[in-house]
Amino acid sequence: MRNGGAERTVRLFAAVWPPAEVIRILEDLERPEIPGVRWTTPAQWHVTLAFLGDVAESRVEEVGAALVGAMARAAAPRVARLGPGSVRLGRSVLCVPVGGLDELAMMVRAAFAAVPIRAAPGGAPFSGHLTLARARARRTVPASLVGMRLEATWRVREVSLVRSELDPSGARYTTVVTATVPS
Prior knowledge:
The chain contains three helices and twelve strands. The protein has 183 residues and is α+β, with helices and mostly antiparallel strands. It has a single domain (2-180), classed as Cyclic Phosphodiesterase, Chain: A (Alpha-Beta Complex).
């Protein structure tokens, strides 16, 4: 499909979704109404392993196959560790660290780097986290939100290739491909 001479693209990333029991812990978190702060929703809670950015639609299947192939070779089990509490990432993002996924992220990034796509994952180091809130319009997430206790562990059973559509009310995510992590 061509649109104005350029191939259509989709915005993609690879992610781990937390399971239902972790979602319940996150849902119990107090979310005070603060001007300029937008809380993320359960449908947005994930840990990004690799961000690809805009990828040609014609390459999505190939990217998905690379992810599935990489996860088929992953050593098991993988345990994600959420917490122990909320932190700021820069001044505008409130998140909770997620450990235990560094090696998985390296595998995913290597698999994507082998696919000839324009937006291969950059060299930024992996920093596992789950975003809880974002400050809008150059504001800062208040320090009072830092240090909220959140702890959980879960076994990672899948890694997803996710399509991201940006919207003023927050990003919308659609899983394109799911790759099973060996158990």
